Amino acid sequence: MKTLRLNNGNTIPQFGLGTWKSEPGQVKNAVKYGLSIGYEHIDCAPIYGNEKEVGEGLKESFSDNVVKREDIFITSKLWNNRHYQQDVIPALKETLQDLQLDYLDLYLIHWPVAFKPDVNFPEDASGLLSLSEVPLIETWQGMEQAVKEGLVKNIGVSNFSIKKLDDIITNCQIKPSMNQVECHPYLQQDELLAYCQKNDVILTAYSPLGSKDRPDFVRNENEPILLENEVIKNIAKKHQATTAQILIKWAIERETVVIPKSVSPERIKQNYEAQNISLDTEDMEQIKTLNLDYRYVDASFFVFPNSSYTVESIWD
Ligand code: A2P
């Protein structure tokens, strides 16, 4: 599998398995099946509520000699209620325990949004902490400590704007190697991608298929359906591929990492095989015209009256 080089010399497999929205009862088999057909990279997070089952899938894959730990790449993320610097390593250790691992390949600050430690998901502004109460650079210092303690090989961020990423890059000891953000033809992120490429930060594209299985609170009315886009459908027809495969290969062509989620063996395999498709310049030019700057995951679920967070401030 093709890898990309991170800014510390380590590498990351460009294609991985997403696990957001994968039900605990299904994700173990998805992980085991993916690893058995060649997946080398699994993207996780404690807020997905399934890390224990991912861990069971990993453990069984190791004990059945399907893969070796050192040959695969595992990412997880720091949830918003563990942003105090001293909470980072305890949170990471919980994730490691759930995943049954000694180290992670990559650990990301999941969102530039902080919650009070006893709040898993706020219902109003009282559950939030502002970024002046818990500055992101202090959370980042906890992430750096995790590298120093050997608990994680690479660290990065997720859902960070250029402004927030730049602030970390300017003030850090260990530079972020990753920014994982929503990215697909309706949200092409050209400016952010150019910034990342200039600053040697790899961009991971989440929701590359448009995450049609999002829960209702992450859904707006009359959303455009990415997998039904006519231009993508036509390109798929031309290559005797599926629309999902074109979306995946588009992300790979742009030198991003891509992590489509599936719990269906057929689609897990189909998505893997997308790596073999060749898109030509004309395909890429056509897809370029589809950008709508449209976010499926717009972060409005973190915004409450009388809070310091607005949708604009999160994506500034
Ligand atoms: P399923 O898990 O049943 O395969 P995203 O990665 O953008 O979050 O999208 C995930 C959604 O896309 C899920 O609903 C997933 O369903 C579906 N999906 C994954 N792979 C494919 C595919 N190859 N074709 C169509 N839908 C897919």
SSE diagram, text form:
Layout lengths: L2 E3 L5 E3 L3 E2 L5 H13 L4 E3 L7 H13 L9 E6 L6 H15 L4 E6 L4 E2 L12 E2 L6 H13 L3 E7 L3 H10 L6 E5 L7 H9 L3 E5 L23 H9 L4 H11 L3 E2 L6 H9 L7 H8 L22 H4 L2
Parallel strand pairs: 3-4, 4-5, 5-6, 6-9, 9-10, 10-11, 11-12
Antiparallel strand pairs: 1-2, 7-8
The structure holds adenosine-2'-5'-diphosphate (A2P).
Adenosine-2'-5'-diphosphate binds next to helix 9.
User: What is the oligomer described by this structure?
Assistant: single chain
- The top-level CATH class is Alpha Beta
Going by CATH, what is the homologous superfamily? NADP-dependent oxidoreductase domain
* SSE pattern, N- to C-terminal: EEEHEHEHEEEHEHEHEHHEHHH
Give the strand line-up of the largest sheet.
3-4-5-6-9-10-11-12
Whole-angstrom Rg = 19 Å
As residue ranges, the low-confidence spans are none
- N-to-C CA distance: 35 Å
Structural class: alpha/beta
How many strands appear in the DSSP assignment?
12
Note the main sheet: 8 strands, parallel
Q: CATH topology, what is it called?
A: TIM Barrel
Overall structural domain count: 1
Summed up, the helix count is 11
What would the principal axes of the Cα set say about the shape?
Answer: globular
Strand content: 5-15%
Helix content: 25-40%
Question: What's the CATH architecture name?
Answer: Alpha-Beta Barrel
Note down, in words, how this protein is organized:
It is a single chain. With 316 residues, this protein is of the alpha/beta class. The protein has helices at 24-36, 51-63, 85-99, 136-148, 162-171, 190-198, 230-238, 243-253, 265-273, 281-288, 311-314; strands spanning 3-5, 11-13, 17-18, 41-43, 73-78, 104-109, 114-115, 128-129, 152-158, 178-182, 202-206, 257-258. It has a single domain (3-220, 254-263, 292-315), classed as TIM Barrel. The strands form 3 sheets. It has an 8-stranded parallel beta sheet with strand order 3-4-5-6-9-10-11-12. The relative contact order is 0.14. The model has no long low-confidence stretch (mean pLDDT 97). Bound molecules: adenosine-2'-5'-diphosphate. Residues 18, 207-213, 227, 242, 244, 260-264, 267, 270-271 line the site of adenosine-2'-5'-diphosphate (A2P).
